[in-house]
Design brief:
Number of domains: 3
Structural class: mainly alpha
Number of strands: 4
Number of helices: 15
Strand content: under 5%
Distance between the termini: 74 Å
Mean pLDDT: 87
Largest sheet: 2 strands, parallel
Strand order of the largest sheet: 1-2
Helix content: 55-70%
Length: 343
């Protein structure tokens, strides 16, 4: 045993003899929290949340470096980086830790990303619920591909929990153990129940924040997820078309948000504005309509000037690109009055 790499983690009272024995061989004792394999093991939820929000954790330092350095990139490169790195920085944490622990941290993470996007694109503050949710939709669902960590909390934990419970059940069947996984991990199953309910509530809450009655229709959330954690293994064992689980649940959330955007557009009173947003949402939902947002600017012909990128992204989000007459010349080719001549 390599004692330099060992810790004794205990969340209950231990005897002084035990403390002295382990201290004598140089093994530190931990009684509140410990970072294990990139996640947090803590004595209670509040301790875990406090540690998660600490600025000296490995993931916090990585995220702070990203937020600091990304502002030096072009708008095109900023968007490409956030598409690849945003949720990957926290997805492991969300898979390992209950929603009750990660939800506030994920929301804070999203707010920092939205702040970067708002500053880079020159979007008006505060962002409307429609623009906020569209930014964090997948590219194929009319978004910018900067996925929401908060919307992924429950899906990541549910998928990871299904894997854990399935493996646990298989190992019990192989060894002939008669104790059921339900009886042996009731507290764990409670956190899975919370994740299931959180996913359903998140879908309904987001949709209702975008669209309003009479055009609002409550999203469907009960046909691809079990009612309780007790049924999670048997539920998905007969529904192989729902794998991978996290991808399926994320797709449903994205679809519900897009439908809420369509319902919101249908409720706009001004007919011209209504038709504009309906046409916009239809066109950017089309196949390959987002490919220009995924191109790597490895050649001069594939690079978009920051102003051009801002205008295009704002139009995709349904925001006015600004007073273009203030800068009639094209910022890329510098042709005089290019915007006035553009049909």
């Amino acid at each position: 045993m390599n004692r330099q790499k060992c810790k004794l983690i205990h969340f209950h009272a231990i005897t002084q003899h035990t403390v002295d024995s382990w201290s004598a061989v140089g093994v530190p004792l931990v009684s509140d929290y410990c970072d294990v394999l990139g996640a947090i093991v803590a004595k209670d939820t509040e301790t875990a949340k406090q540690r998660l929000h600490s600025s000296d954790t490995r993931w916090a330092k990585r995220f702070d470096r990203l937020c600091t350095r990304i502002r030096f990139l072009s708008v095109q490169n900023q968007l490409l980086v956030l598409q690849k790195l945003n949720t990957s920085l926290v997805n492991h944490l969300m898979s390992c830790m209950p929603v009750s622990v990660t939800s506030d941290y994920a929301l804070e993470h999203d707010n920092k990303i939205l702040e970067i996007m708002t500053d880079s694109l020159g979007l008006p503050k505060p962002l409307s619920p429609q623009v906020t949710q569209q930014i964090m939709l997948p590219l194929s669902s009319c978004g910018l591909g900067v996925l929401s960590a908060r919307n992924s909390c429950a899906t990541a934990y549910i998928a990871a929990s299904h894997s854990v419970l399935s493996s646990h059940l298989e190992s019990m069947q192989l060894t002939g153990t008669t104790v059921t996984p339900i009886a042996s991990s009731a507290s764990y199953l409670q956190t899975v129940d919370e994740a299931i309910n959180d996913w359903k509530l998140t879908n309904i809450t987001i949709a209702s924040s975008i669209a309003v009655a009479p055009h609002y229709i409550e999203p469907v959330v009960s046909d691809i997820i079990p009612e309780t954690a007790q049924d999670i293994v048997t539920y998905y064992s007969t529904r192989e078309n729902l794998f991978p689980i996290q991808h399926t649940l994320t797709q449903r959330t994205s679809k519900n948000i897009y439908l809420a955007l369509v319902q919101w557009a249908a409720g706009i009173e001004d007919i011209d504005v209504r038709q504009h947003h309906q046409s916009r949402l239809t066109s950017i939902y089309g196949k390959d309509s987002h490919r220009w947002l995924t191109l790597l600017p490895m050649h001069p012909l594939l690079r978009l000037h920051d102003e051009c990128m801002k205008w295009n992204v704002k139009l995709r989000l349904g925001e006015h690109p600004g007073n273009l007459t203030d800068s009639p010349n094209c910022p890329k080719c510098l042709e005089p009055n290019a915007l006035a001549k553009d049909p």
